[in-house]
Amino acid sequence: CMNRRIIFMGTPALAVASLNALVDARMEVVAVVTAPDRPAGRGQQLRMSAVKERALELGLPVLKPEKLRAPDFLAQLDVLNASLYIVVAFRMLPEAVWNRPARGTINLHASLLPDYRGAAPINWAIINGERRTGVSTFFIGADIDTGDILLREETEIGTEENAGALHDRLMAMGADLLTRTVKDLFDDTLYNIPQSEFVGDMVHDAPKLTRENCRIDWKLPSQRVHDLIRGLHPEPGAWSMWREQGKPDRQFKVLRSKVAPSGAGSGRKGDGPGTLFVHEGKLLVRCGSGMIEGSIVQMEGKRPVDGEAFARGSRDLHGVVLG
């Protein structure tokens, strides 16, 4: 009888769907590895990860190593004697971990590898205006997101879909793909394909989201600005600076937007990119070409509000520029 024991490694809600799918498929998950409990929220209460919470409900042993190379953690892994490790939204594994199990360590990634390697593939696919993306399972190797591919599944990205909605769809698709991958792997019906055989015209990076790469460049065309905004919704949100004469600059987020129809407010001459104005009750911002309507916006220190309500509550916007 062959060893089909699995150790599952993951932390956020994204990984819970995969853990559930494996357990529902009667896979032999013998333990879960997740991040240590961290202080969170206003009271800085210790909070467990979404994966730990689910693992405890399922009655699975939970390991929470601070250091992945710690000898006692590696010893715990060996005692569990799993032939396959599965990683979904965890952290960089040292070779001492990923190279341990006989059948290797597989990872679920929310893009069509080799495209969009990195920490934020869902966001960047939308930010770059892609029409399709998907999920991939692959073997973890020495370089991040570059190991041999096992299975991939593709999906269209809706023209108005935001990162939150796409995340939820890929979470379900990924859980299904992962379960099929594990089953086929244990049945020896899978071939792994080097990523070099997939390379198309261009491979994009999907770096971690930072304050700087979430900032809106109003000189870009309206469609590009809109794609950035939906690619960062609901988290962390695209932002700009609100510049008003005689007042200190404030951060201003545009959380949801629409590309404004071409005639809207076009009579105004001489206003550069980032100029705000109200047209037929809607809050518009001029871009390098075209305009966007801010449909949900948030001034620093305030709650998010509907763009039309913001427009009604604003005094004259003359002289306000976002930059």
Walkthrough of the structure:
The protein is an alpha+beta fold and 323 residues long. 25% of the residues lie in helices and 26% in strands. Strands 5-2-1-6-7-8-9 form a seven-stranded mixed beta sheet. Helix 1 runs parallel beside helix 2 and helix 5 (121-127) runs antiparallel to helix 7 (222-231). The longest helix has 24 residues, at 163-186. The radius of gyration is 23 Å and the shape is elongated. The protein starts with a strand and ends with a strand. The model has no long low-confidence stretch (mean pLDDT 93).
Properties at a glance:
323 residues; alpha+beta; seven-stranded mixed β-sheet; seven-stranded antiparallel β-sheet; 8 helices; 16 strands; 25% helix; 26% strand
Q: Radius of gyration from the CA trace?
A: 23 Å
Number of E-type strands:
16
Stretches with pLDDT under 50, minimum 5 residues: none
Run of helices and strands: EHEEEHEHEHEHEEHHEEEEEEHE
Instruction: Estimate the helix proportion, in percent.
Output: 25-40%
Walk me through the topology:
Layout: E1 5-10, H1 13-24, E2 28-33, E3 38-40, E4 45-47, H2 50-57, E5 62-63, H3 71-80, E6 84-88, H4 95-98, E7 105-109, H5 121-127, E8 132-139, E9 149-156, H6 163-186, H7 222-231, E10 238-243, E11 250-259, E12 276-279, E13 282-286, E14 291-299, E15 305-306, H8 307-313, E16 321-322
Helix pairs in contact: 1-2, 1-6, 5-7
